[in-house]
Amino acid sequence: MPQGADRRLETPRHPPRRRPPGSRPFPGPRLFRGRRQFRAAAGRDRARRVFAGPGAHRAPDGDGVPARTSGPRRRPGRRALLHHVAGPLRQRDRLSRPCQVPAERGGVRLSRRAQRDRSFPPGRRAAGRDPLPGGPECARRGRLRCRREAQGLGGPGGRRDALRRGPRRELCRYPPVVARLRPMESAAALAEAVRAGTLSPVQAVEECLARIDALDSKLQAWVEVDREGALRQARLLAERVGRGEDPGPLAGVPVGIKDIVDVAGLPTRLGAGPFAHFTPKADAACVARLRRAGAVIVGKTHTTEFAYLDPAPTRNPWHLEHTPGGSSSGSAAAVGAGIVPLAIGSQTVGSVLRPAAYCGIVGLKPTFGLISYAGTASLTPSFDHIGVLCARVADAALALTALAGHDPADPYSLDASAQDYPLAIAAPRPPRLGLFRDYYRAQASGAVFRHLEDVAERLAKAGAQVVEAEMPVDAAAFREAGDPVMRYEAAAVHAQRFKEHGDAYRPGIRGLIEAGQATSEADYRRALIRVRELREETLKRLEGFDAFLFPVAPATAPPGLETTGQGIFCAPASFTGLPAVSLPSGLDEYRLPLAVQLMAGHLQEATLLSAAAWVERVLDFQERPSFA
């Protein structure tokens, strides 16, 4: 035996002592916290069982070393022993054993003392080094689990990769993380975990980026991903948490931004050709407020051309052959696939509510002017809204609290301050809902009509008051009233650009602009007056109700990418500027999401979200797309 070799790892020359029947060959699920304990417990019997030559034992998780069929027996190295002895414990004791961290990071090896006993106190750095992977945020008050990368994803640097090929592993004393970012994770729950110190914002962003890599080649929800910027912002947030500062209500929440909303340093493409591309130097108002609330901007999501009809390449996460809706196609698909828990969209007719319905998520369009539209490309200034797409009603309430408020840069901004919307949904009560069948009976498909009848019956049995009501006009008349306003203002917004690049416009938006050019100013003003009259009549009929209940779309997501579906049932909320929310409520026979819409009075977001939270609880929609 070479001089200095460790005799404790050598195969014993004397016959092994007999063990009592039924005893374990090694000390079961003990936590090996030191080198001596490890060798004493596993050195003799386990080493002989694992590396005994032909017929060698393979670890239960499939990572064992193939048996040797010829040649002399080899004495295992310490790293191989750690892998094979601790391997069976990884799944069983995943949340109870201490985590493993590499003995070196970034090419700089830790001191021998640090490797031996991991003597760094929680929350402290060694001079010139990060004691733990991921920076000081991993050691905050000893509560965060040390991770080299987004472990569990199996990517480069992950747990499995590091155990196979990485540097020598050591054991640390930091307790494991109990919160992890999962598909369709609630933004509110994620932010609470970050604020409490049980989840690192760096980990949340890394897992989000890993999902983009895994899913977006088929989903095509993202047009621009800002990896470096997102990770940089997450590290800054982690440092704030480590210093004990308040990181904001949306701390560490990864967010996608529709590609008509300006994000400083990222191209704004508007879903159009190169003639329309530009790179803004400043954030839009809604993006700036998200950053102040602690959200992490991951990138830009696909939109239809100029946020109108011409489809984006994005697919529906429930069925890739179906449309996700539009124009906030990428934002809805990214949330529906569980890539991000929160995304920003915009709505002129149905561009938030309809994609949310098609993708099985929550979509909120607040009162017109409650969220500033400054820094966002406009289609029809009288109807343009910023909206939120998310996994749960609680997420919408949290996001609206951060986004709402007056902005002098937006001429349409309301002089209204944000409320504590999460408090409004803390204890929702059964709402009084108005159901007007005559409004949607002619346009809704049989499946949608029957589903809404079933939903109304379930809500009534659960305690809600569902009362038959009437709208001023039916859905088709509502849409016709606002169309002249939309055409005229779209032509005015695009006048100069259309004059220079009209041939580059796609058919849908080109037809809208040409129709607007043929609309007279007198027709436009008459249409504005008619829309305002419908708004007043709708508000009168809302008196005595918490919200109106009706469908979001006439049918589920249509097949193909040639259309984004019909937004006829979303027109009342958009044209009147009243708040509305889309809630997933079931699946049809083809496993495509069905949804219901709630609409409330002017600036009645607290009432609307309370009713939505109660309906969400009763319907209890828990289905998830298999694609995610």
* CATH homologous superfamily annotation of the largest domain: Amidase signature (AS) domain
Shape: globular
CATH class of the largest domain: Alpha Beta
Strand content: 5-15%
Strand count: 15
CATH architecture of the largest domain: Alpha-Beta Complex
What oligomeric state do these chains adopt? single chain
Task: Name some characteristics of this structure.
single chain, 628 residues, alpha/beta, Amidase signature (AS) enzymes, 2 domains, eleven-stranded mixed β-sheet, two-stranded antiparallel sheet, 15 strands, globular
Structural features, described:
With 628 residues, the protein is of the alpha/beta class. The protein contains 22 helices and 15 strands. It has helices at 35-42, 45-50, 78-86, 89-92, 112-117, 159-165, 187-196, 201-219, 227-242, 285-292, 329-336, 353-359, 393-403, 421-424, 437-440, 446-462, 475-493, 495-501, 507-517, 521-542, 571-576, 605-619; strands at residues 100-102, 104-105, 108-109, 169-171, 222-225, 254-258, 296-301, 342-347, 362-365, 385-390, 432-435, 465-468, 547-551, 580-587, 593-599. The radius of gyration is 29 Å and the shape is globular.
Layout of secondary structure:
Layout: H1 35-42, H2 45-50, H3 78-86, H4 89-92, E1 100-102, E2 104-105, E3 108-109, H5 112-117, H6 159-165, E4 169-171, H7 187-196, H8 201-219, E5 222-225, H9 227-242, E6 254-258, H10 285-292, E7 296-301, H11 329-336, E8 342-347, H12 353-359, E9 362-365, E10 385-390, H13 393-403, H14 421-424, E11 432-435, H15 437-440, H16 446-462, E12 465-468, H17 475-493, H18 495-501, H19 507-517, H20 521-542, E13 547-551, H21 571-576, E14 580-587, E15 593-599, H22 605-619
Parallel strand pairs: 6-7, 6-8, 11-12, 11-13
Antiparallel strand pairs: 1-4, 2-3, 5-7, 8-10, 9-10, 9-14, 13-15, 14-15
Helix pairs in contact: 8-9, 11-12, 13-22, 17-19, 17-20
